[in-house]
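Q&A log
Question type: sequence-to-structure
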Amino acid sequence: MTLIKRILWVLAALLLLIILVSFFLPGTVHVERAKVIKAPPATVFSVVNNLRTYNDWMPWNRKDPNMHQTFGDKDSGQGASYSWTSTDKEVGNGTLTITESVPDKKVVTALDFGDMGTSMGGWNLSPVDSGTMVVWYMDSKMTGKNVFYSLVGKYMGLFMDKMVGPDFEQGLDSLKSISERAGVTRTPVIKLDTMTVHAMTILYISDSAATSGEISKKLAGIYGQELAAFIAGNHLKMTGPPMAWYSGDQFPLLFDAGVPVDRTPDATEGRVRIRKTVAGPALVAHFWGPYELDPLGYKALADTLRQSRRKAAGMAYEVYVGDPGVEKDPYKVQTDIVQPVH
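Response status: OK
Response body:
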């Protein structure tokens, strides 16, 4: 009898120790893996932002080819979602929703596992010389709906990195393969310089676009139709190539598309507005390459601005020196990214 009591006392002490230790264990777990992919951020973003591609590279989706999936109203971008059911215990059931989507920079997701809770995760993309640095991360809450779930969850959290990390590594390898096959791996040409910009009278139209493809269509309509008609009707002359200012980095993207003209018209009409710019110094990135790679030009310009210890004098803008409608090779189309400075 004494032996049984001793065993019970030892078990009780162990249980108490386990419970006490759990109070000092973290309630959340962060898992992260990173890899450089030799493709531009726009290419990698187009993959992770589109749920229809996940069966090609997401490790858990590939574990059960018989997994049943149901997609929501959207299959890409913020608000896109799909649910899955699987008899494979490693896959289980759940719902994935894209909660935030910043073009070429990040995709944030919520993974809802029902009674097991919801984990937040996603991919952060940043341009590097050899392509794109991709960081895949997940933050999981390890506490549950009662003390037992919280106790078990916190101890499971100690092994989460070893359990999930290898899957992240496998998924990044597959994402790398897909992105590099689809990506434009040729490096754009960027030449940095200083210049003096002249004072300009600019006719412009403000608009927005939900996709990068829509930007091209709207710019063509603004330059080739609305502004061209206004210039012809008011006997004005263009004094330089088309220009554009972009606000923010998330779709729907706001922009002002304009052209410099020789004089100020007596009045405007429709969506046409007038902007005056002042003369002064500027940094410029002469960029030759596809438009989806121009964030590399902005980055180079920002790095140069920081190193020069000068300050930006207003927003940077793009000057479309080359015409992609005439020159079909995007690496021969010149875009100047101009940053006025103090």
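Response note: The chain has eight helices and 15 strands.
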